[in-house]
Amino acid sequence: MDDLTIQPLTQERWKDLVALFGTRGGASWCWCQYFVQTGRDFSMDRDANQRALRAQMVGAQRPLGLLAYGGGVPIGWVALGPLGSYQRLTASRSLDDVRGSRPVEDVWRTSCFVVKVGRRRRGVSTALLRSAIGFAREHGARSLEGHPVDVDARTGRVGGDELYHGTMSMFVAEGFREIGRTSPTRPVMELVL
């Protein structure tokens, strides 16, 4: 997309994120809280999750993600940050089995990609991942990880809502390497920065 721009989420861009997440689909109720919270702390309450993300923004030392704009309209999002800021990921036994004793300091993680319906399959997620690499590097990350879907290993059609982690092919194209899998269709990918 020729008119695509990527910007960090700021207080001034909050309304753009609200517009992008809308009222339908996973992003509209999750607000990127699933990986931040664990157990009964996580709620499927749209308003509570929206307030939680807003509160996290206020207390954050850096933006919590990047927004993609097409023609000046918000069309995409990637949440990313230090691995330690994602409680569910650091508590995951299956990820521990893959990561082993690898240190978490200076490791960043992409958690969620959102692309507006009608703008998918046009390279928005890839552009967001590319920008996430630079953003993580600028903020001192030693490596960036993702946990995408290996679409080729799946049987049947994969719906767009299932791809909020991104696709393996997208990560491979940006130079990430597989460090293990949590299931046959879910590789853990890493890019040393």
Concise synopsis of the structure shown:
This protein has 193 residues and is an alpha+beta fold.
Kindly state the percentage of residues in helix: 25-40%
- Overall 3D shape: globular
Which sequence of SSEs, written as H and E, runs from N to C?
Answer: EHHHEEHHEHEHEE
What is the alpha-carbon Rg in Å? 16 Å
Structural class: alpha+beta
Counted beta strands: 7
Strand proportion, as a percent range, falls in: 15-25%
Query: Average pLDDT value?
Result: 89
Instruction: Give the number of helices.
Output: 7
Spatial sequence of strands, sheet with the most strands: 1-2-3-4-5-7-6
Terminal Cα span: 26 Å
The biggest beta sheet is recorded as: 7 strands, mixed
| Model regions low in confidence, pLDDT < 50 over at least 5 residues | none
Task: Name the features.
193 residues, alpha+beta, 7-stranded mixed sheet, 7 helices
List the SSEs and their pairings:
Layout lengths: L3 E5 L5 H8 L4 H5 L15 H14 L5 E6 L2 E10 L4 H4 L2 H7 L7 E9 L8 H15 L4 E4 L21 H6 L3 E7 L2 E7 L1
Note down, in words, how this protein is organized.
The protein has seven helices and seven strands; from the N terminus they run E-H-H-H-E-E-H-H-E-H-E-H-E-E. It is of the alpha+beta class. Strands 1-2-3-4-5-7-6 form a seven-stranded mixed β-sheet, sandwiched between helices. It is globular, with a radius of gyration of 16 Å. The mean pLDDT is 89.
